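Exercise 7b. C-alpha cells:
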C-alpha cells in the first residue's frame, strides 16, 4: 500500500496540483493586500467611508439602533450589508486579478514575439570554417 501511495504522489499531475495550490494561496495574499491596503483606502476616501456592514433587517419587526444592538437583543437579522460588501470586494478582487493576468499575458506575448538569438554553431562547424578560411588565404 505504501508503494501505491508513493506512486500516486510521484505522478506529475499531483505535484502540479500541489504547487498550484501553494502558489494560489501565496497569490491570494498578494491580491488581498493589494485590495485591502491599496485600493480600498482610495475607494473609502472617494465614498466618504461608506460601509454597508451595519445595514440589516430585523425579522422580529423591531427597530434597532445598530446591528450589534439587534444581535445583543437576540433578534434574527438579515445582514444584507455584509453581502453587499462581499459583492463589492469580489468585484474589486476580480478586477485586480484580471489586470494582473492581463499584464502577465502581455509580458508572455512580448517574450514569444521577440526574435530568439540564433543558436551558436557547434564547435566542429566553427573549426571547419577556420580551416576553410585558412586554406583560402594560402
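Sequence design result:
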Amino acid at each position: 500500500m505504501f508503494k501505491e501511495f508513493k506512486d500516486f504522489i510521484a505522478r506529475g499531475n499531483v505535484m502540479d496540483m500541489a504547487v498550484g495550490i501553494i502558489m494560489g494561496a501565496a497569490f491570494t495574499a498578494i491580491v488581498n493586500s493589494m485590495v485591502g491596503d491599496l485600493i480600498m483606502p482610495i475607494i473609502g476616501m472617494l465614498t466618504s467611508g461608506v460601509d454597508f456592514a451595519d445595514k440589516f433587517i430585523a425579522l422580529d419587526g423591531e427597530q434597532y439602533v445598530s446591528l450589534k444592538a439587534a444581535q445583543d437583543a437576540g433578534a434574527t437579522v438579515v445582514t444584507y450589508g455584509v453581502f453587499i460588501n462581499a459583492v463589492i470586494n469580489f468585484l474589486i478582487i476580480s478586477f485586480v486579478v484580471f489586470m494582473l493576468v492581463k499584464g502577465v499575458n502581455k509580458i508572455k506575448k512580448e517574450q514569444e514575439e521577440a526574435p530568439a538569438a540564433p543558436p551558436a554553431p557547434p564547435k566542429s562547424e566553427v573549426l571547419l570554417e577556420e580551416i576553410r578560411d585558412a586554406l583560402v588565404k594560402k
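Instructor comment: The beta strands are 57-58, 77-78. The chain has a mean pLDDT of 84.
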